[in-house]
Amino acid sequence: MPAGELRYPSPVSCPPISQATEAPMEEDEAWVWAQIKAEARRDAELEPALASYLYSTILSHSSLERSLSFHLGNKLCSSTLLSTLLYDLFLNTFSSDPSLRAAAVADLRAARVRDPACVSFSHCLLNYKGFLACQAHRVAHKLWAQSRRPLALALHSRISDVFAVDIHPAAKIGKGILFDHATGVVIGETAVVGNNVSILHHVTLGGTGKACGDRHPKIGDGVLIGAGATILGNVKIGEGAKIGAGSVVLIDVPARTTAVGNPARLVGGKDKPSRLEECPGESMDHTSFISEWSDYII
């Protein structure tokens, strides 16, 4: 290994998110970016066919925001929405708002720690469409807040076309987010998603179709939402709750409880629901409730 090059981090050496949030933001961003460049150099040596791609997307850039802006610009461009325009838009937004960079770093850590299939930070940066869709959404949300709504909606449309992830630019998304697989995720205009939330594919945070105004779900910190779950209306999913795969939720779910089924019911019953000790959004434990919920046998 060349002198001064960082070693490729194993999952056990990757600092947990709870530690990452305590570190100074600039140091944390610098650490992750150094890891990404070391991984890219290693991968370029192992697979020369990717050397040019890795150089143009990562190794030629001086910072994470420049690499991410370049990659998103190339992913989301079209014949009429030029990559150079998008690159400038993303770079200006990321460079001017440190909170967006901190959120991107937290999302990279979330994927690296929570997803066994995530072999490196660079793999997430380059290939995880849930991560890329989330970062692009944050820029669209910034544009929406600045009343640049036609551009925000145009970017929203491209994100949906390219990544199959449909998040309205007005929706508020926290940090430490994992969109695992991400295909088919739909998040409505007035939805709010807290920090350290994990959402699987084909999840809908939608309206009931009958209400106007504030009409979409509010997801607390540390929530885990299983694949295919549907949460409708201005309902609150409490901090650290778990929503089972395929569930349909139409009313509030208390903090640290598990809701499963169609319509969803609380594991342990409404009066004395079973309480979760761990944070499911970080532990990614989808099935710990099954013995209490069902005598399911094959």
UniProtKB/TrEMBL annotation:
<keyword id="KW-0012">Acyltransferase</keyword>
<dbReference type="InterPro" id="IPR042122">
    <property type="entry name" value="Ser_AcTrfase_N_sf"/>
</dbReference>
<dbReference type="InterPro" id="IPR011004">
    <property type="entry name" value="Trimer_LpxA-like_sf"/>
</dbReference>
<dbReference type="InterPro" id="IPR001451">
    <property type="entry name" value="Hexapep"/>
</dbReference>
<dbReference type="GO" id="GO:0009001">
    <property type="term" value="F:serine O-acetyltransferase activity"/>
</dbReference>
<keyword id="KW-0028">Amino-acid biosynthesis</keyword>
<dbReference type="InterPro" id="IPR010493">
    <property type="entry name" value="Ser_AcTrfase_N"/>
</dbReference>
<dbReference type="InterPro" id="IPR045304">
    <property type="entry name" value="LbH_SAT"/>
</dbReference>
<keyword id="KW-0808">Transferase</keyword>
<comment type="pathway">
    <text>Amino-acid biosynthesis; L-cysteine biosynthesis; L-cysteine from L-serine: step 1/2.</text>
</comment>
<dbReference type="Pfam" id="PF00132">
    <property type="entry name" value="Hexapep"/>
</dbReference>
<dbReference type="GO" id="GO:0005737">
    <property type="term" value="C:cytoplasm"/>
</dbReference>
<dbReference type="InterPro" id="IPR053376">
    <property type="entry name" value="Serine_acetyltransferase"/>
</dbReference>
<dbReference type="GO" id="GO:0006535">
    <property type="term" value="P:cysteine biosynthetic process from serine"/>
</dbReference>
<protein>
    <recommendedName>
        <fullName>serine O-acetyltransferase</fullName>
        <ecNumber>2.3.1.30</ecNumber>
    </recommendedName>
</protein>
<dbReference type="InterPro" id="IPR005881">
    <property type="entry name" value="Ser_O-AcTrfase"/>
</dbReference>
<dbReference type="Pfam" id="PF14602">
    <property type="entry name" value="Hexapep_2"/>
</dbReference>
<comment type="similarity">
    <text>Belongs to the transferase hexapeptide repeat family.</text>
</comment>
<dbReference type="InterPro" id="IPR018357">
    <property type="entry name" value="Hexapep_transf_CS"/>
</dbReference>
<dbReference type="Pfam" id="PF06426">
    <property type="entry name" value="SATase_N"/>
</dbReference>
<feature type="domain" description="Serine acetyltransferase N-terminal">
    <location>
        <begin position="32"/>
        <end position="136"/>
    </location>
</feature>
